[in-house]
Amino acid sequence: LDASVTYSRVMLKISGEALMGDQGFGLHPPTVQRIAQEVKSVHDLGVEICMVIGGGNIFRGLAGSAQGMERTTADYMGMLATVMNALAMQSALEQLGVFTRVISAIPMDQVCEPYIRRRAVRHLEKKRVCIFAAGTGNPYFTTDTAATLRANEMACQAIFKGTKVDGVYDKDPKKHADAKRYETVSYDECLARHLGVMDASAIALARDNNLPIIVFSLDEPGGFRGILRGEGTYTRVT
Ligand code: UDP
């Protein structure tokens, strides 16, 4: 492990939308490749990396149910969307020479591995990036909760939530010039003030297990690596 790094095992959570670039839908390969490069640069420091990628660039359960689809069916479609994103990220990482495993909460053996906790831990010890797909495997949850759950199970030291802004603000910084970024903020304040870090169940699960959430900008080149070395701006939720 590089001496400049204070974390040896981390969870990186990104939304599905982070992979769609400037398009309104789906996967934008150059963007997937850019994010894979960011992950590689952290992997090169010797950090063990777990990833959860959302599915919102392809399908969201709530959107499906708003259009009349049965909610649980729509949620399963959302979970399947995360598997596609995970496979895209796997492909991009392996092209950069980073070994990976896609591990699905819903077994689909021809496509990827089923989730077996001890096996996933072993992959991490062997420095393979573990991309956890299909969310928690349950409808009515989100991939933020899946990321928090797997981060706890894998004993990650923190969740890094990559977003479009460099932290948590008191109001939307893209709309309000006087928005202020928090250096640190408590889980309870995020919940009480609906700060939009993650959904409430994910924040509560992180709080109850003392898992710090670090919100940072994924748009900043080198941002993920920088934050692991204590550089750059971000918000720490504890
Ligand atoms: N989903 C689910 N259970 C889970 C995780 C995800 O049912 O444990 C479904 C849900 O329908 C959700 C969709 O998968 O809308 C995509 O995940 P999410 O909305 O979290 O993706 P993101 O917003 O991060 O792109």
Automatic annotation (TrEMBL):
Taxonomic placement: Bacteria, Pseudomonadati, Pseudomonadota, Alphaproteobacteria, Rhodobacterales
UniProt source species: Paragemmobacter kunshanensis
Family to which this protein belongs: Belongs to the UMP kinase family.
Residue intervals of the Aspartate/glutamate/uridylate kinase domain: 9-217
Functional summary from the UniProt entry: Catalyzes the reversible phosphorylation of UMP to UDP.
Main localization, broad class: cytoplasm
SUPFAM superfamilies xref list: Carbamate kinase-like (SSF53633)
Residues holding ATP: K13, I14, S15, G16, G56, R60, T163, Y169, D172
Enzyme Commission numbers on file: 2.7.4.22
UniProt keyword terms in alphabetical order: Allosteric enzyme, ATP-binding, Cytoplasm, Kinase, Nucleotide-binding, Pyrimidine biosynthesis, Transferase
Short name of any one Pfam family annotated for the protein: AA_kinase
Nucleus found in the keyword field: no
Involved in allosteric activation by GTP: annotated segments: 21-26
An MF annotation (GO) of this entry: ATP binding
Subcellular location: Cytoplasm
Residues reported in the UniProt entry to bind UMP: G55, D75, T136, G137, N138, P139, Y140, F141, T142, T143
PANTHER family per the UniProt record, alphabetical: URIDYLATE KINASE (PTHR42833), URIDYLATE KINASE PUMPKIN, CHLOROPLASTIC (PTHR42833:SF4)
Assembly behavior: Homohexamer.
Pathway named in the protein's UniProt entry: Pyrimidine metabolism; CTP biosynthesis via de novo pathway; UDP from UMP (UMPK route): step 1/1
Cited Gene3D superfamilies: Acetylglutamate kinase-like
Protein name (database record): Uridylate kinase
Entry keyword annotation includes Cytoplasm: yes
